[in-house]
Task: inverse folding
């Protein structure tokens, strides 16, 4: 049922930021929903979507295919048969024109935007091009939770911008073309995976131009790398990562490293019989070299290894796990390595002769 209700999407301000740049987006392989509007007549609202107001399929000069036009103060969502899985990706192409309203998109506990006001219940992202304000803002319900001031929408006016969202349980990532602009590891809770929505931002009077979307694809995918690492540890007995790093000035664990350790701590709490050894390999100027024909990693530097430095780092990991998750100190052993043997890890994908940078951490199930 598609009924008209009032939709208000507030302008979002700014607070602290949790952003990074990367191109690690991996589309899910099991398609749940896909639509390019080619089967919908121009001028009609698309058959597989719902709206709180209106919308129409159009053809855009200079852009191939068909597009769904979304005006300001209007919200739309795909008509999904089930809620989004805890591991999934959402992609769509977006065209913002001169004079367009802001665009707001995200996930919501409201299954159908025609039956509730999505403004008050959403985890969303606003893209805007307003002088003096950040171009990317994140909110949860009616509160702003983060913003990004160094991404500019200026270069994306009147051209196609590909948007990608990766959801992995509580983790929420957003990619604009090849740039990862949002990575918030503890943002989502299950109720917000009832549906995905896109909306035009609110203003009075409404902007003269709307925004346009096409090539929408929602697919189930695998768990993110952190959870896969713990799965590998439990099933294969060992796992290796370069995602745990330290501040070069203070030698403290970086904030980006903590979610990986949190997953390990949660696994140890869930299984009192899970004991681990944490081995570290010191980063050298020469990097690390995968051994030919294997996934093994050997320190390529001829210099002496600073065992005390490595030991200090792995002990910091142990202390973090013991203090936060209250696991018995005897359940974690630490060590120093010059060669880490792994037959199944992200490091195994490195080509022979390609150096691996960063502190290498190995978890071994005891």
Result:
């Amino acid at each position: 049922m598609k009924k008209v209700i009032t939709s208000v999407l507030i302008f979002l301000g700014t607070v602290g930021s949790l952003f990074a740049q990367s191109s690690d987006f991996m589309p899910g392989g099991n398609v749940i929903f896909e639509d390019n509007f080619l089967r919908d007549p121009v001028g009609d609202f698309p058959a597989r979507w719902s709206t709180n107001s209106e919308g129409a399929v159009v053809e855009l000069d200079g852009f191939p295919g068909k597009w769904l036009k979304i005006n300001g103060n209007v919200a739309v969502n795909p008509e999904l048969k089930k809620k989004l899985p805890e591991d999934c990706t959402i992609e769509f192409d977006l065209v913002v024109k001169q004079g367009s309203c802001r665009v707001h998109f995200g996930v919501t506990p409201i299954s159908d935007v025609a039956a509730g006001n999505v403004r008050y219940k959403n985890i969303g992202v606003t893209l805007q091009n307003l002088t003096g304000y950040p171009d990317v803002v994140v909110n949860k319900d009616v509160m702003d939770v983060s913003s990004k001031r160094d991404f500019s929408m200026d270069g994306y006016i009147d051209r196609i911008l590909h948007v990608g969202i990766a959801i992995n349980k509580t983790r929420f990532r957003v990619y604009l073309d090849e740039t990862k602009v949002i990575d918030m590891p503890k943002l989502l809770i299950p109720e917000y995976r009832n549906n995905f929505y896109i909306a035009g931002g609110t203003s009075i009077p409404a902007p003269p131009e709307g925004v346009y979307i096409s090539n929408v694809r929602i697919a189930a995918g695998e768990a993110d790398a952190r959870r896969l690492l713990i799965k590998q540890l439990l099933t294969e007995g060992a796992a290796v990562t370069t995602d745990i790093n330290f501040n070069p000035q203070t030698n403290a664990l970086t904030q980006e490293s903590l979610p990986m350790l949190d997953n390990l701590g949660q696994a140890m709490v869930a299984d009192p019989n899970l004991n681990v050894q944490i081995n570290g390999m010191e980063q050298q100027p020469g990097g690390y070299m995968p051994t030919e024909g294997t996934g093994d990693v050997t320190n390529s530097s001829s210099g002496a290894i600073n065992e005390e430095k490595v030991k200090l780092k792995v002990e910091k990991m142990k202390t973090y796990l013991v203090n936060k998750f209250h696991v018995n100190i005897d359940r974690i052993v630490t060590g120093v390595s010059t060669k880490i043997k792994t037959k199944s890890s992200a490091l195994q994908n490195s080509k022979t002769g390609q150096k691996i940078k960063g502190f290498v951490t190995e978890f071994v199930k005891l």
Observations:
- The chain is about 10% helix and 30% strand.
